[in-house]
From TrEMBL:
Signal peptide: none annotated. Pfam families: Ala_racemase_N (PF01168). GO terms for cellular component: cytosol. Its cofactor is pyridoxal 5'-phosphate. It comes from the Bacteria. This is Amino acid racemase. The lineage of its organism: Bacteria, Pseudomonadati, Bacteroidota, Cytophagia, Cytophagales.
């Protein structure tokens, strides 16, 4: 069994990438070529994997910075072959197979013909078959689906008298099958991101014993603190997000302390924030400000104080992608 770390959550942040590499990681996967370029700047020894079908206009850059790529289009692999010849490199390919989630992947019925078209292309080495599940329609991995992928490998090996080293079907959502000893033996390569960073069992939606779900923390500063009515006043129309406030008549005449934080939709969607302090609620956000209902403000928050949040995966991705939020590592 071998595995690589999906680093796209880190958005090319050199400090975080170096922290990852210092853990002893030898293979890093990403969906942004620029991020793989930064990995190669830190360490030429890391095997880099580009984890989505490459666009024609980016083939040259991808071949330069990625040692391996995931592919599902014959013409794309031909372009990669041509570019690998130009760059005098041997590029490795994982053929992605459709197993039900309907994102990228060759249909199983076409897989043998697909392989026949590409297996002798110059400067191309086919090292695996792979699949993605739960990424678009939420289709969960199962023992049956993964056995089918392993059977495709055996069929191709017998027909073409070759060996395919990897069956790359392990992603974070597949790890629970491994933990419950339900992973077919043919699956021998993992591409792991979310479980590494958040310690989460994506099937039971809980932190795996011995891991941590609070590695990423967000601190946002209070820039206004006022006691205000609970309900808006005036003629209501859609806000810039297309939302219209719903009015609860029972709240007329009532007020609470409202805090405005120095962060907004440009940085993160509030639904991916987990307040550490369960005594307040997130009311909404504009492009650059987040609004909280602190109720009676029992902890006496004031302007200048920091509010702490834990993050869901997509929340951390937004924060990491925002150039307006400072990042640091705390030992």
């Amino acid at each position: 069994m071998s595995w690589g770390v999906v680093s796209k959550l880190l958005c090319g942040n050199r400090t975080y990438l170096k922290e990852l590499i210092d853990l002893g990681v030898t293979e890093i996967h990403d969906s942004r070529i620029s991020n793989l370029a930064k990995v190669k700047e830190i360490s030429r020894e890391i095997q880099t994997v580009y984890v989505k079908p490459v666009s024609k206009r980016n083939v040259a850059k991808m071949v330069k910075y990625a040692d391996v790529s995931l592919n599902s289009e014959i013409n794309t692999i031909r372009w990669i072959s041509d570019e690998a010849v130009i760059q005098k490199k041997r590029h490795k390919i994982i053929i992605m197979v459709e197993t039900g989630d309907l994102r990228e992947g060759v249909m199983g019925d076409h897989l043998v013909d697909f392989y026949a078209e590409i297996f002798e292309l110059p400067n191309i080495e086919i090292i695996g078959l792979g699949t993605n599940l739960n990424c678009l329609n939420g289709v969960m991995p199962s023992t049956d689906k993964l056995i089918q992928l392993s059977l495709y490998k055996q069929i191709i090996e017998l027909k073409f008298n070759i060996k395919i080293p990897w069956v790359s079907a392990g992603t974070s959502v597949t790890i629970p099958l491994m933990l419950h000893q339900q992973l077919p033996k043919g699956i021998n390569h993992f591409r792991v991101g979310e479980t590494l960073y958040f310690g989460v069992d994506l099937v039971e939606e809980k932190v795996i014993q011995g891991m941590h779900g609070d590695v990423f923390e967000l601190y946002a500063e209070i820039i206004e603190m006022q006691e205000k009515p609970l309900l808006p006043s005036g003629t209501l129309a859609a806000n810039p997000q297309g939302e219209i406030a719903e009015i609860d008549d029972s709240l007329y005449g009532m007020s609470s302390f409202r805090a405005i934080l120095d962060i907004g939709l440009l940085d993160v969607d509030p639904k991916y924030l987990i307040p550490e302090d369960g005594e307040f609620e997130i009311l909404g956000a504009s492009s650059d400000m987040l609004i909280l209902n602190l109720k009676l403000n029992p902890k006496n928050y004031k302007v200048g104080d920091l509010i702490k949040f834990n993050l869901k995966y997509m929340g951390a991705l937004g924060i990491m992608n925002s150039s307006y939020v400072d990042k640091k590592i705390s030992d």
